[in-house]
Amino acid sequence: MFSSNLQVMLLAGTDTSSITLEWAMSNLLNHPEILKKAKNELDTHIRQNCLVDEPDLSKLSYLQSIVYETLRLHPAAPMLAPHLSSEYCTIGEYNVPQNTIFLVNAWAIHRDPKLWSDPTHFKPERFEKESEASKLLSFGLGRRACPGANLAQRTVSLTLALLIQCFEWKRTSKEEIDMTEGKGVTMPKKFPLEAMCQVCQSPTINGIF
């Protein structure tokens, strides 16, 4: 039982994190001005000759906004895990009978124009308002929310920060990255990301590679 639970946690954490990183990099490559702004933030807040580390994440508000916006537009689990009502209850205007299977379409909610301005566009700046992040459903809400939410956000944020700090990124052509969504329980890209990168020319990075 323990090994099966561990396997579920490992698979759920690695697949969703890698998918989120792929969506984040795809969006950044399609919006080089946002990528440049994220890199400038890293250069400003990370000491020279140092790689970004987990304690630095609290200083990188724009990077965190990029992660939030990626989770909004491309939730790794667009249909949250199903829930079952243990007893009769009322949710908003709906009366829910006992033993009803309840599905939440996070993808649709995250693109609802009643909740978000310009909902289909990648705009990390929207999360400069602290209240905006509380509207995200990527990890669920309440007692049944994903227990690995904090770990996932920090892991994705740190990995993305290192990719931006250590490498210069470009698209393989002048055409924008295709953002068509694939099929699955998680939401992969239909066409895997292909990009060009080279090691940044800085004393910190050159000393590592």
Structure, explained:
The chain has 209 residues and is mainly alpha-helical. The protein has one domain: Cytochrome p450, CATH 1.10.630.10. 42% of the residues lie in helices and 10% in strands. It has 7 helices and 6 strands; from the N terminus they run αααββββαααββα. The strands form 3 sheets. It has a two-stranded antiparallel ribbon with strand order 1-4. Helix 1 (2-30) crosses helix 3 (61-73) and helix 1 (2-30) packs across helix 6. The longest helix has 29 residues, at 2-30. The protein is elongated and about 60 Å long.
Strand order of the largest sheet: 1-4
CATH class: Mainly Alpha
Q: Radius of gyration in whole Å, from Cα?
A: 19 Å
The secondary-structure element order is: HHHEEEEHHHEEH
- Tell me the distance between the termini: 42 Å
The assigned CATH architecture is Orthogonal Bundle
Q: Write the CATH homologous superfamily.
A: Cytochrome P450
Q: State the low-pLDDT regions, or none.
A: none
β-strand percent reads 5-15%
Number of helices: 7
The structural domain count equals 1
- Outline the biggest β-sheet: 2 strands, antiparallel
Helix content: 40-55%
Structural class category: mainly alpha
Count of individual beta strands: 6
Q: What name does the CATH topology carry? A: Cytochrome p450
What multimeric state do the chains show? single chain
Structural shape: elongated
Mean pLDDT: 89
Keywords: Heme, Iron, Metal-binding, Monooxygenase, Oxidoreductase
Protein name: Isoflavone 2'-hydroxylase
Cofactor: heme
GO molecular function, one term: oxidoreductase activity, acting on paired donors, with incorporation or reduction of molecular oxygen
